[in-house]
């Protein structure tokens, strides 16, 4: 098989089913988050309640991540993914029940709110297992020599679902209301569960079944911190999201700086996702695995520059272009990072490494929003975004100097080895 074939991974039937499952789950999850936010704010009119939603999900997702990775490496992946999707289906059905008009009329607002928070918390537990399981399953569906192509299609599918889910949520709430929107979400989870039956059970490649938990976790963390390519990729992504993300401050830019209202806010919010989606589709024809280290460093550097331009811009069109390009280069970063993780991680350690990755990315997203809010409060909105972009540039420069091996990283050699 030609590894440069842009459709190499799509020639495997199970991988196509996997993409359907992943699209349905990411679509349902991202749509559900928007619908929950709308419902909670509608019944409370309290902005703090929106922050609690994120907190209820991120605490179990990050807190359980390492333990989840250990479990994933010990269990059969297809069946474990079924359990994750079934858990999500139960949660979405529970939210469907809580949004029934009769339930809303019968119970107090506080009772409904606590019920939603509880289900979101259990959703965070499911999320802790879902990411590592999906990451591990890909490697058992396609040959190693086409991991880069598979990672590209998987990331593209994720990006498309993450864009379309929230978009449909807004229309759905307007057209059919919160209750039936939750029914749509439940339907997508059932679609994912049904499709997954068409993927066969996979072998467990971990030779240390029954290994004590703490020894297992120690081995996984040790691998990440000893493998410079993996550690470098995770660190760059974490720093870029932590310091360079301006998404949390977009409402301020739309209302008080660019004066473009809710319509302009929607365009600003969509611009990075559109850029990332275009990059990911293009990378299926123009692979990024050659000179991957340099490309990743340049991508994160470009992201930092875009954040500085966006922060300083007072023109709507320039701000949109800066966000669009930031999404495009972030797409490059995401694909290369996923490819590095797929190629460099041993089969028996995929769950644990993916869990560490989810901790880096998941925690940095939440902390990034917090950092943006705090720095905006202390420095001012524009200064906060420029500061974040500058910190991203400094991190790239430091990584390039301290880790010349990462700068020279070329994944083509790993692919050639897998072809032999």
TrEMBL record:
Intracellular or extracellular location(s): Cell membrane
- Write out the transmembrane intervals: 17-36, 48-68, 80-100, 112-141, 153-173, 179-199, 229-254, 266-284, 296-325, 378-402
User: What highest taxon heads this organism's lineage?
Assistant: Bacteria
Keyword Magnesium in the entry? The reply is no
Record protein name field? MFS transporter
InterPro entries of this UniProt entry? MFS_trans_sf, TM_effector
| Keywords tagged on the record | Cell membrane, Membrane, Transmembrane, Transmembrane helix, Transport
Which coarse location class describes where this protein primarily resides? membrane
Q: Does the keyword Ribonucleoprotein apply?
A: no
Classification via Gene3D superfamilies:
MFS general substrate transporter like domains
Q: Which Pfam families match?
A: MFS_3
Membrane topology term reads:
Multi-pass membrane protein
């Amino acid at each position: 098989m030609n590894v440069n074939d842009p459709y190499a991974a799509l020639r495997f039937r199970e991988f196509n089913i996997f993409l359907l499952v992943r699209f349905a789950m990411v679509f349902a999850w991202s749509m559900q988050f928007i619908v929950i936010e709308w419902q909670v704010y509608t019944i409370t009119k309290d902005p703090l309640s929106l922050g609690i939603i994120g907190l209820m999900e991120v605490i179990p997702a990050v807190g359980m991540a390492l333990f989840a990775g250990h479990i994933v490496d010990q269990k059969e992946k297809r069946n474990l993914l079924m359990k994750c999707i079934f858990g999500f289906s139960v949660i979405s059905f529970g939210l469907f029940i809580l949004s029934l008009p009769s339930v809303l009329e019968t119970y107090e607002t506080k009772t409904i709110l606590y019920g939603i928070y509880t289900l979101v918390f259990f959703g965070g537990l499911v999320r802790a297992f879902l990411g590592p399981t999906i990451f591990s399953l890909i490697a058992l569906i396609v040959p190693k020599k086409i991991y880069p192509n598979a990672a590209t299609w998987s990331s593209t599918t994720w990006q498309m679902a993450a864009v379309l889910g929230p978009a449909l949520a807004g229309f759905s709430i307007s057209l059919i209301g919160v209750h039936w929107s939750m029914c749509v979400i439940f339907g997508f989870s059932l679609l994912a569960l049904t499709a997954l039956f068409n993927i066969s059970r996979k072998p467990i490649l971990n030779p240390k079944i029954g290994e004590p938990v703490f020894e297992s976790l120690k081995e996984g963390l040790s691998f990440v911190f000893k493998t410079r390519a993996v550690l470098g990729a995770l660190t760059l992504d974490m720093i870029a999201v932590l310091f360079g993300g301006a998404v949390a401050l977009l409402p301020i830019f739309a209302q008080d700086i660019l004066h473009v209202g809710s319509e302009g806010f929607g365009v600003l919010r969509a611009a990075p996702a559109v850029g990332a989606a275009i990059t990911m589709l293009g990378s299926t024809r123009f692979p990024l695995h050659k000179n991957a280290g340099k490309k990743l460093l340049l991508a994160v550097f470009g992201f930092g520059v875009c954040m500085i331009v966006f922060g300083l811009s007072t023109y709507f069109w320039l701000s949109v272009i800066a966000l669009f390009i930031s999404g495009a280069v972030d797409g490059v970063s995401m694909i290369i990072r996923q490819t590095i993780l797929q190629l460099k991680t041993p089969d028996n350690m995929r769950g644990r490494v993916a869990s560490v990755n989810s901790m880096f990315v998941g925690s940095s997203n939440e902390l990034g929003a917090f950092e943006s809010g705090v720095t905006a409060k202390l420095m001012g909105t524009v200064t906060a975004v420029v500061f974040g972009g500058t910190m991203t540039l400094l991190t790239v420069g430091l990584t390039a100097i301290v880790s010349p091996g990462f700068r020279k990283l070329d994944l083509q050699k790993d692919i050639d080895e897998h072809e032999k």
